[in-house]
Amino acid sequence: MMTDDQHPADEQKRDFLRIALVGSAVAFVGAILYPILAYLKPPRQGEVEVTTVKAGKLSEIEKDSGRIIRFGNRPVILVRTASGDLRAFSATCTHLDCTVQYRKDMGLIWCACHNGKYDLNGRNVSGPPPRPLEEYRVVLQGDEIFISRRT
Amino acid sequence: MMRILRSIYAWMDERLQLKGLMEYMGKKYVPVHRHSIWYYFGGVSLFLFIIQVTTGILLLLYYKSGEALAFESIRFIMAKVEFGWLIRSIHSWAANLFILAAMIHMFSVFFEKAYRKPREMTWLTGMLMFFLALGFGFSGYLLPWNELAFFATKVGTDIAGIVPVVGKPIMTFLRGGDEVTGATLSRFFGFHVAVLPGIFTVLLGMHLLMVQRQGMSEPLGHRAEEEQKTMPFFPNFMLRDLALWLLVLNLLAILAVFFPWELGKKADVLSSAPAGIHPEWYFLFMFQTLKYIPGKIWFLDGEVLGIGLFGLAGVLWTLIPFWDRKSARGEQNRFVNYLGLFAVLYILLFTILGWLA
Amino acid sequence: MKTVQRLAVTVAVLMLWAGGVAAADKCLECHTATGDKPSALFMHDVHRTKGITCAGCHGGNASAEDMEQAMDPKAGFRGVPKGDEISQRCAACHADASRMKSFGSSLLTTQFDQLKASVHGGSALDGKERIVQCITCHGAHGIVRVTNPASPVYPLNIVRTCTRCHADAALMRSYDPKLPVDQLEKYRTSVHGKRNAAGDPKVAECASCHGSHDIRSAKDATSRVNAAHVPATCGRCHSDAAYMKPYGIPTDQQEKFSRSVHGVALLQKHDHGAPACNSCHGNHGAAPPGIESISKVCGTCHALNADLFSSSPHKGIFDQQHLPECETCHGSHEILPATDAMLGVGPEAVCSRCHTAQKNPRGFAAARSMSTVMDSLRMMERRAQDLVNDAEQKGMEVSEPKFRLRDVHQAWLQSRTMVHAFNEAKFRTAADPGLVAAQAVITEAEAAIHEYTFRRVGLGISTIIITILAGSVYLFVRRLERRHQRSTVSHSHHTPS
What we know:
Radius of gyration of chain B: 23 Å
Largest sheet of chain B: 2 strands, antiparallel
Largest interface: A-C, 32 and 35 residues
Helix content of chain B: over 70%
Oligomer: heterotrimer
Shape of chain B: globular
Largest sheet of chain C: none
């Protein structure tokens, strides 16, 4: 364990050691503080996104309109009918992978890619879609609309 | 520069009598022998706990409890918050390393019989902290509200419910209802960030105070030796501790970057359990044992028996300073050595079996 | 040996029929004398040629001279059979293979069972009998072979036979209000109907497609006219080269259709929304669609494409040049999934069939430019997809750009449709948002991959810093210890407190 170091050499080494110690300690503080400070900086999008289940407020959705809501990695179309009913369907057209939209003038769910049409029960009524749209469940809690998968 | 520091020290010393404390610490020595390495694991555990507190507080800034938000908020932390992935991964990895370090610390103390008089209370507070650490692990595992955690919690609380008489109420208390739901998540969150840390801090304070008062224990038989090597606690041992802590920090960073903790799929209360549901590794040996126990042994329910035996073993293990008279008298106790060896081998074997299953 | 067997069978049959089959049919003798219609018809009935008398169906003793005796209920006389009893009388022989054999007949014996299971086997309005009995189509007393032009079910006559009911709107409404009653009218406009009217018994009539005894609703999955079976049903004649020889038309339509995007959807993916032969050619009015109407026919499903085409500059020119609209580029029976290579001026491109740099250069330039945009959209989508996959594999969170990839794909699909406007500006309205979205996804995915690298570099730097710090702390302790050692050598040993 012991070495027969000479005193002056020892001192020289110590100086080097002190530089290394102080230098790396400062760098260490930087390396720790940088991620923490970056973490504390509020992210661009201030809050966690909740669109996977929450679809907005009822009062904000007009009658006779529809909107696309992100449900995980899939889009869901939320339709409020002219009579005020809320319905949600998978927004992926069953023909190819396009996203459908609500057409006020037709009163239907419409796919722009090949003019596929679905009625407001999700049934494919015209055009190439081979199957109806999968329906999602809409739950109202006060004014808040929640969309969940049907089981 | 030095003058300013010195005057600040003098100002503090005048009010807090720091000199006495410094002198006390300067007089504290750590024995040096071939088992000295085990002394470091207590410090490593402490360091990991500090990391857990720090990263835990950081996570709290963005984490949102509740069925609808828990999973999303963790995903948000990992994707949107700068270095959020790092903080979360370090928290998860440090949690596991913490339990591992605490386990090693516990077994080293056990084999060196360091629990013997006068350190019964230190052992006791340590054991309580260890159980709390398991509680931390169990409650924290659920917080991301992913599929794996959801079912592991279901199974875990189910096992608690098996215990006769008190089991059902305990299960209901843990779950906040009959089933694992968002209510369970809220509870576990409360346990994890408020209840457990509060108790843990008190115990930790006592534990450290006692270690400082009583100094390091020496293995049995060392007293007979004439020459004893020692090392000052401050600064020698502490700086060595510090160097080791830094290496542990390095390890943590590497683990967090190269093996980022996965988030998995969001828990769905109504879906069926996916394959490969298993608890965290430190519960695995108990989980695996319960699987092997037959359904009925005589008139006893197999699982009840298993849980009873584990409970009894835990109690006996915790109370060892009070029944191991031989070590207290300074004599070798081979039985305790074999018992400890059996426990280590048993845990290793069943953890491996559980891992392979 | 054979003679003995035949004799034994004959004896047995004679006994069973208790005089039903006799050399002299006394019933017929008297009834012919009275000049009634059934007996006149029965004179050339196929059953009489087999030696079956009136008693075969009506019972009684056909050999008895005396009317009282002949029509004695004790002798089994049952008069005119009513309701389901009629078909049961027929089935007594026609469902019995050994009896049919004894008359030297090779007819199938499953007709009655088939009838019972068919749409016509349901109960009639009064609820007491089946809708259709054997005699409804075959007649009662003048039954002749199907191959006999006098038979009501002979190919040239069957149309009349079926439409006796099926063209009767009032009657059909009482059974199935949705069922049309204009099949005959349509049939007469079809190639089949015209030839049938001209006396060609080989062309398809009602039974050729619908079957005879086993007619089922088109919605029934086992029906010959169910969409899934239509190609095979039509193909029974149209794929038979020998049969179709006199007509001089191709016989490979079924084969081609099976390979087409429609055939694969219908026959392999069991997508019942996919078109079968009749979707384009019509059912009863089967004929090839006219050149100008092709886009209308295809447009019943491909509405947007058809609309776009109809308002495109191609519509007028195609009509003028007698080009068959959609078919010009996509073909007819063997329509394969459209590829991007069809657009442009490459070797697979259909545009270049008419548009070359010399001939019709404006279209040539537009085709080339649209094809370039389409290719770059496709390439960018693939690149974006690869980058997202790469980032995902590296463990980065890229669910948002992954979600946006859908927009790119959608733009691609939409621009494929928009090609049919044959207008570059319109095409760009569909394609451009896709290019923008793809670029955004690529940027985000690249940022994620960059972040991945940044993490590793950051880790490397901090690992070095921490290692140096740990090393220097350790060396520092060692130094302290060495110094301490030096000082304690000269002084005394410490003892632990």
